[in-house]
Write a structure and sequence with these properties.
By secondary structure, the chain is α/β, with parallel strands linked by helices. The protein has 2 domains: about 260 residues, TIM Barrel (Alpha-Beta Barrel), CATH 3.20.20.70; about 90 residues, Chorismate mutase (Chorismate Mutase Domain, subunit A), CATH 1.20.59.10. It is about 50% helix and about 10% strand. The chain contains 14 helices and 8 strands. The protein has an 8-stranded parallel β-barrel, surrounded by 5 helices. Helix 2 packs parallel to helix 3. It starts with 8 loop residues before the first helix and ends with a helix. GO terms for molecular function: chorismate mutase activity; transferase activity. Its EC number is 5.4.99.5. One of its GO terms (biological process) is chorismate metabolic process. InterPro entries: Aldolase_TIM, Chorismate_II_sf, Class-I_DAHP_synthase, CM_dom_sf, CM_II_prokaryot, DAHP1/KDSA.
Amino acid sequence: MENSKQMRTWLDDMKLDHPLVIAGPCSAETEEQVLKIAHDLIDTDVNYFRAGIWKPRTRPGMFEGVGAIGLKWLQKVKEETGLKTATEVANRAHVDLALEYDVDLLWIGARSTVSPFIVQEIADALEGTDKIVLVKNPVNPDLALWLGAVERLHTANIKNLGVIHRGFSTYEKTKYRNIPEWQMAVELQSKFPDLPIINDPSHITGKRDMIFDVCQTALDLNFDGLMVETHNDPDQAWSDAAQQVTPASLIQIMKDLKIRKVTDEEMDYNNKLSQLRAQIDMIDNQLIDILGKRMKTSDQIGALKKQRNVAVLQTNRWNTILGKMILEGEAKGLSEEFVLRLFKAIHQESINHQEKIVNA
């Protein structure tokens, strides 16, 4: 992937005046449902109509997609609306069928990206194709694995490549279905600035009311497009009902988003500042999450101290922490004064948490 410029031609050729938009239902359910949604998306910012034909599920017995018959419905979408089509492929058989029905854009899902064997099988099946192929990040936050999948496809002489950022799985409960880990997407952008990156807010949030905010963050970070799951009756969807929006809601989201267009030739002050501020916002949110986790651990320590009738303030432990953090801070370019003020505030909040528990 030394010359990533080659990969950007498909997006450049589209000459869009807005970010790329891929939209449609999580799963194709019926021909009527697919065509209804597609017709509702005509004359909007949507460039590709997506629908899951084969749905890899965590456990057997759940709805796993309608299968190849759904590809005929996608063909009708293209014929009746003019929208280009997109679907996920997970093996050679899927690829062969998708190519037979002339699907325009294929993506490799997060569960497939984790397996070099699966990615290689798909790369071999697609070798030399001019179709657009996008790679979702693996379920775990592993940048090398993500890039490795792209490299396998590039080696197979597939030039119309891109990636989809859909967040990363975690055992921890957060407000997200999949934690964005924005810094990983930013790092990928910095290494391969000409590799198109599409954000998937539906899988990141798992909740439709959070989709706008994640879309805006993605655009502020200079993502090239969005993939938003869209359903004519989301509450009755056969899969991932909570994260799908109606076509009307999608149209409104696209209207409300602030698009800060950045060109390769010139990035003016305001656009650059907006991107940097978006990165600051991302890091600030991570700081709050980390501090929240620290205080939960302090609560557990407070409960242990109460059981053992131990004093909340342990001076020797505090001095050890402070000395260590001052040295760590200096290594990161932080002044001793700042580190002292920061950790004194954190320490005081920790004491407050523990005192509430000990004195309860």
